[in-house]
Amino acid sequence: MSNATRMEEEANKVLAEGSKLVNLLHDMTSLTHDRLEKRTQATLVKISNMKTLIFILIVLGPIVAIGMAIVCTQGLARPLSVLLQATRKLKSGDLSFRVQGLTDEFGEMAAAFNEMAAALHEQMHNMQRAEQMTMVGEMAAGLVHEIKNPLAGIKGAMQVFQEEADISEEERAILSQAIDEVQRVESLMKSLLNFAKPPKPQLLPVNINDVLEATINASIPYSSSAPDSPKAIRIVKHFDPHLPMTMVDPLEMQQVFLNLLMNAVQAMPSGGTVTATTFENAAAKEIHIEIADTGMGINDEISEKIFQPFFTTKNKGTGLGLAISKQFIEMHGGTISAEKNPAGGATFRIILPCTQAEEAPLPDQDHRDVRIA
Q: Which of 305, 298, 300, 307 is nearest to 344 (CA)?
């Protein structure tokens, strides 16, 4: 304080430092102001953009919503329209119509609809066939009744003429041939009647092995050559010794087995092997019977036709043997099928339910003779 010169110098230094501080503060204030201005402008731009977006949403939102509603409605309306059209087709009787082109849940509904239409078509076909067979049965019964008596008279007259002593051997041979043809017509009429109006099964507790064994013993010896002949028929049996008793009509089963065995023999004109197999499927309560041969087999073209009535590949066949067999098996609640063996020949497979006596319906009072030949 006593040195005025030093005091003035110190004051000047303080003024200089204060001026620096003021300039620094001014620079900091300017920088802060510039940054705040930029942020404010950026915020204002964002607010402007948000206002524009909100305006666009307010204007376009209903339009977009309406468009999405139209698309969704069409997405629901088209499958519903297709299903409605299919229902109308089904109602009009067009059971062959099928729904196509639908996906997701509607695809599952379309698949269920198609399955229902197929089942109805099959059921309708079966009903029509049953109605036709009823009409054929009535016609066949009347036809057989009208033809049987005159045919028996013709055959009897021919047999009387054949026994006459004053006819030549040539005439006797002609009469014998005519009698054979009359017997063939009688057999055909009997087969037609059995197919058109099959008798109701007379169920009895039997062992399928016994029925099949008796049928083989009765049919094969008369339809094959000598054992040492190259055309001999060899029989192989694989019977299940523990096969349970089941309720079947033994005569009808014997006729089924006879048809299959004779077909097997006729399919092996140069000899071969017939294999008969039985076994039980205890889990499914079923009895399986298989008759296989080493013959000519079954062509793929006719594999689906062999059980149709009047279809035959034989020159003198009636085409009713397998059809009648199929009827008999189905009347017992079973199934029959045929397949070509990889090594040659064919296998016919029968599946019968293992029915006990208490589960089977009571037979009619007018029993037929059920003795097995």
A: 298
Report which secondary-structure segment, H or E, holds 370. none
Q: What is the DSSP string of 229-293?
A: STTPEEEEEE--TTPPPEEE-HHHHHHHHHHHHHHHHHT-TT-EEEEEEEEEETTTTEEEEEEEE
Query: How far apart (Å, rounded) are the C-alpha atoms in residues 88 and 94?
Result: 9
Neighbours of 252 (CB within 10 A): 26
- DSSP code, position 200: P
Written as one letter, the residue type at 286 is: E
**Is the separation of the CB atoms in 276 and 291 below 8 Å?**
yes
- Check: CB of residue 248 under 8 Å from CB of residue 203: yes
pLDDT digits (tens, 9 = 90+) for 175-209: 888 888 887 777 777 766 666 666 788 889 999 99
**Residues in the chain, overall count:** 373
Beta strand segments in the chain, E? 204-206, 233-238, 246-248, 272-281, 286-293, 335-340, 346-353
Q: Are 79 and 106 in contact (CB under 8 A)?
A: yes
With contact defined as beta carbons under 8 Å apart, do 288 and 276 qualify?
A: no
Distance CA 307, CA 327 (A): 9
**Angle of CA points 224, 230, 236, to nearest 5°:** 55
Residues 291 and 261: their CA atoms lie apart, in Å, by 7
pTM: predicted TM-score of the whole model, two decimal places: 0.54
The residue type found at 103 is T
CA dist 373 and 258 (Å) reads 11
Pairing of strands 246-248, 286-293: unpaired
Under 8 Å between Cβ of 287 and 280: yes
Query: What gap in Å lies between CA 300 and CA 277, rounded to an integer?
Result: 24
Contact call for residues 121 and 94 (beta carbons, < 8 A): no
Q: Residue 297 in contact with residue 289, Cβ under 8 Å? A: no
Q: Which of 58-62, 63-67, 142-146 has the lowest mean pLDDT?
A: 142-146
